[in-house]
Amino acid sequence: MKTLSTTLQLELRYATRVPKLIEHALFRSWAGIDMTAVEELCVNAVTFKNLVEEDDLFLLGEPANFCYLLVEGMMNYSQATSPNADLEGAVQVERGLWIAEPALWCQWTHVGKLTALHR
Questions:
Q1: Which terminal residue of the chain, N or C, has fewer Cβ atoms less than 10 Å from its own Cβ?
Q2: CA distance to 23, 24, 60, 73, 88, per residue, from 43 (Å)
Q3: Beta partners for residue 7, in sequence order
Q4: Which residues pair with 58 in a beta bridge?
Q5: Dist. CA 110–CA 53, nearest whole Å
Q6: How far is CA 5 from CA 11, 12, 23, 39, 91, in A?
Q7: What pLDDT digit, counting tens, does each position of 36-47 carry?
Q8: Across the strands, what pairs with 79?
């Protein structure tokens, strides 16, 4: 990637991120209003995170600084019913779901744990 020009690197970042980003209604609407802002978001704020089986994406009590879209694979989400409770039964999270969306709107603390199952 370092052998590509800066312009081509930015275009590649945009091209690989915008199709997934605009799956969300907010970003799709935003793109209709200000595509330049969405391009900036894709280039500067959207990234991919690869996990292997049993990796935790986040844990109970951690600050939620990011919103996630599961692009590939499956994950298990276990949630606590109260701040001091143990995590309860896992729910399977499938490809295409947005996770930790409150992080887009407010300060948020995770109330559960999200673990990768497989790709």
A1: N
A2: 17, 17, 30, 24, 38
A3: none
A4: 114
A5: 20
A6: 10, 11, 29, 18, 44
A7: 998 888 888 888
A8: 112
